[in-house]
Write a structure and sequence with these properties.
Elements lengths: L8 E8 L11 H10 E8 L6 H6 L5 H15 L3 E4 L14 E3 L2 E3 L3 E4 L5 E4 L13 H27 L7 H8 L1 H20 L4 E4 L6 E5 L2 E5 L8 E5 L5 E7 L7 E4 L8
Helix pairs in contact: 1-3, 5-6
Length: about 270
């Protein structure tokens, strides 16, 4: 969907994470377009909304990043209930868990019940880092390589835009083809699904690994809403209770375009 104007889209719930405001990799233009286009009854912010780590390394805060926060706060004033579950990059906000500011609530984790009575565990996902069997030095190396990959990603896509080519994810390409990266994602997903199953819940929604996905693992629904650095995606609960992944894309016009992933059938 693209063009010079777009009607507001109404949904029951939207789940987003890993915006990384304060980082040069944040796609503030796309998340702003998403927030201005989609009206939701409930907005779940599942961690790493502000990248405090990046701000400590090098302060970066353009007006667009301020606009994102103002838009979110504006939604609370117009009836949207915002549930904020801090992540590891904004862990300072975990001190305020169980705090309510009007329509803004901060929780360490949360259980959401969909319109089809599925109970979903909501948490960022850094809780599962210890359950993924990789040595500490490999985690550190992977993090540094990912930062380098994102830098290369910016360069590659600036060249692609210059020649009229659409956005292409170098990070996503490597995650799907490098053996260790695939194993990390698989172990992370199993750990997240296990956490929901252990609590007697139907599924889990998280972020953290910047890898959007929605599928069933051992009878538990696993959902990852992705990020707004690379995939630019959100998990959406329609009014009917169906869950979809929406991907916001660059477009040559004034507005971005978006794609809806196939809805996953939900049991009543």
């Amino acid at each position: 969907m693209s063009g010079s104007a777009r009607a507001t889209i109404h949904v029951r719930s939207a789940f987003i994470s890993d915006i990384h405001l304060g980082s040069r990799e944040c796609r503030a233009d796309l998340i702003l377009d998403f927030l201005r286009t989609v009206q939701m009854d409930q907005l779940f912010l599942i961690g790493d909304i502000v990248d405090v780590w990046s701000l400590k390394r090098s302060f970066y805060w353009p007006q667009a990043h301020n606009d994102v926060l103002r838009t979110i706060l504006g939604k609370t004033k117009h009836g949207t209930r915002v549930i904020y579950v801090p992540g590891n990059h904004d862990e300072q906000m975990r001190e305020f868990c169980a705090t309510v500011f009007g329509n803004l609530e901060i929780h360490r984790e949360y259980v959401h019940t969909t319109a089809r009575d599925l109970r979903l565990l909501i948490l960022h996902g850094d809780e599962f880092d210890g359950a993924v069997t990789f040595p500490r030095w490999l985690h550190a190396l992977g993090s540094n390589l990912y930062d380098l990959t994102l830098g290369a990603n910016r360069l590659v896509n600036s060249l692609r835009r210059r020649f009229g080519y659409p956005y292409w994810s170098l990070a996503g390409y490597l995650k799907g083809r490098v053996g260790n990266a695939r194993r990390y994602v698989e172990e992370f997903e199993r750990a997240a699904a296990h956490a929901a199953r252990k609590r007697g819940l139907d599924g889990v929604v998280c972020g953290h690994i910047h890898r959007p996905g929605i599928h069933t693992l051992d009878g538990v629904l696993y959902c990852n809403d992705g990020d707004w650095v690379d995939s630019c995606s959100a998990l959406i609960e329609e009014r009917s209770g169906e869950l979809e992944l929406w991907h916001w894309k660059e477009a040559s016009g004034e507005l971005a375009s978006f794609e809806r992933a196939r809805a996953i059938p939900q049991a009543a």
